[in-house]
């Protein structure tokens, strides 16, 4: 069975229908009914399969989406990946055709909830178009791309400039306002023959891609300071909120959250542990959020994290129980992942945007 051919043919019909009448039934996009339910839930979304980061966050979030590229899964992490997929602890989001992944990876997800690259592309495009003030004409972008290519044709470092152009155009799809602004900056770098500036703009486009993935999945944005610096030149509303939350997080993190999450135990033991502790963690988190809500329905991060000791005590209580006593040595403070752990709780605290129902239209 050619799963690529089946998915591509099915989704191509959705693209055609959307193009013809301007409507798209979100309920038709995903083959998995469970995925359809989860896309509208509060969630954490990771840009790649980083084992330690994902294992550190799973106990604090009911829904974890992970974008998977063909190089994400290898012989070193496949067992963990397969264990998390089988346990329903992550939802893989494929970023390329199935044929580009190792056969065992495709087999591991074939009958499990996941999102194909075909589904993600049309879903992402529909959501971003519906939330933007205006779309940018794809034909206009293509013409602009040709124009930019002419500026460096036959010039020194033309291949490198062309690579940056292709990277930017690929990363900013689908084209929405204010995409012409980044192309304007790219044109300036081409005209001045500034390869360093073109490189910076290409780097920025990866940050924009991450931002839009987060928007499409209605998930918290997990960006490093380096990526934030790349985006600082652009007026994006999401960044203002991100900066505000980031300052509070840095203050809290500087005092040390001290969260303890076991991430080095065998995946089977980890899955069993998560099934035991997750209800407790989510219950405590809910209570923390309820106490942290202000009259304006915003979340006070300081009040939320005042309950962090309760979380640690609950983890320690379960780990010290007879069943998990042998695992105690595997428990350590995950100091490098404090930002991610904080983001997991912030994700639960986010006030969701107006929900769409599975039967709703995206125009």
Structural features:
three-stranded parallel beta sheet; 363 residues; disordered C terminus; mainly alpha
Summarize the structure.
The protein has 363 residues and is mainly alpha-helical.
Give the secondary structure arrangement, pairings included.
Elements lengths: L2 H19 L4 H4 L3 H6 L5 E3 L4 H7 L6 E5 L9 H9 L4 E4 L8 H7 L7 H15 L6 H15 L5 H14 L7 H13 L3 H23 L7 H7 L5 H18 L12 H26 L8 H5 L2 H12 L18 H12 L14
Parallel strand pairs: 1-2, 2-3
Helix pairs in contact: 7-11, 8-9, 8-10, 9-11, 10-11, 11-12, 14-16
3D architecture notes:
This protein is mostly helical. The chain folds into three domains: 3-131, no CATH class; 138-173 and 179-234, no CATH class; 256-349, no CATH class. It is built from 17 helices and three strands. It has a three-stranded parallel beta sheet. Strand 1, helix 4 (51-57) and strand 2 (64-68) form a beta-alpha-beta unit. Helix 8 packs antiparallel against helix 9, helix 9 (158-171) packs parallel to helix 11 (195-217) and helix 14 (267-292) runs antiparallel to helix 16. It is globular, with a radius of gyration of 22 Å. Residues 245-257, 324-337 and 348-363 have low confidence and may be disordered.
Distance between the termini: 34 Å
The gross shape turns out to be: globular
Main β-sheet description = 3 strands, parallel
Number of domains: 3
Note the total helix count.
17
Trace the largest sheet across and list its strands. Answer: 1-2-3
């Amino acid at each position: 069975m050619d799963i690529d051919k089946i998915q591509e043919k099915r989704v191509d019909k959705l693209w055609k229908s959307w193009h013809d009448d301007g409507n798209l039934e979100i309920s038709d996009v995903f083959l998995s009914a469970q995925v359809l339910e989860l896309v509208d839930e509060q969630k954490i979304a990771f840009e790649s399969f980083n084992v330690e980061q994902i294992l550190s966050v799973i106990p604090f979030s009911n829904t974890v989406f992970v974008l998977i590229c063909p190089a994400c899964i290898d012989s070193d992490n496949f067992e963990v990946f397969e264990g998390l997929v089988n346990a329903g602890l992550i939802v893989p989001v494929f970023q390329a055709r199935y044929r580009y992944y190792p056969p065992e990876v495709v087999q591991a997800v074939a009958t499990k909830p996941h999102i194909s690259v075909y589904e993600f592309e049309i879903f992402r495009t529909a959501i971003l178009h519906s939330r933007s003030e205006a779309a940018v004409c794809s034909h206009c972008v293509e013409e602009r791309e040709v124009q930019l290519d002419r500026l460096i044709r036959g010039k020194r470092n033309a291949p490198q400039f062309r690579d940056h152009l292709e990277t930017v155009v690929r990363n900013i799809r689908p084209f929405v306002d204010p995409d012409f602004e980044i192309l304007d900056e790219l044109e300036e770098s081409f005209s001045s023959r500034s390869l360093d500036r073109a490189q910076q703009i290409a780097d920025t486009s990866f940050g924009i891609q991450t931002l839009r993935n987060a928007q499409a999945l209605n998930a918290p944005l997990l960006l490093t300071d380096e990526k934030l610096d790349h985006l600082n030149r652009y007026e994006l509303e999401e960044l203002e909120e991100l900066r505000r939350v980031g300052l509070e997080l840095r203050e809290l993190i500087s005092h040390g959250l001290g969260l303890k999450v076991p991430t080095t135990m065998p995946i089977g033991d980890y899955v069993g542990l998560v099934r035991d502790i997750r209800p407790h963690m989510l219950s405590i988190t809910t209570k923390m959020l309820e106490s942290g809500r202000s009259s304006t329905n915003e979340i006070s991060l300081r009040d939320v994290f005042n309950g962090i000791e309760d979380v640690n005590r609950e983890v320690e209580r379960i780990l010290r129980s007879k069943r998990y006593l042998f695992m105690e040595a595997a428990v350590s403070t995950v100091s490098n992942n404090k930002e991610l752990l904080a983001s997991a709780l912030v994700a639960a605290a986010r006030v969701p945007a107006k929900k769409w129902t599975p039967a709703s239209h995206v125009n």
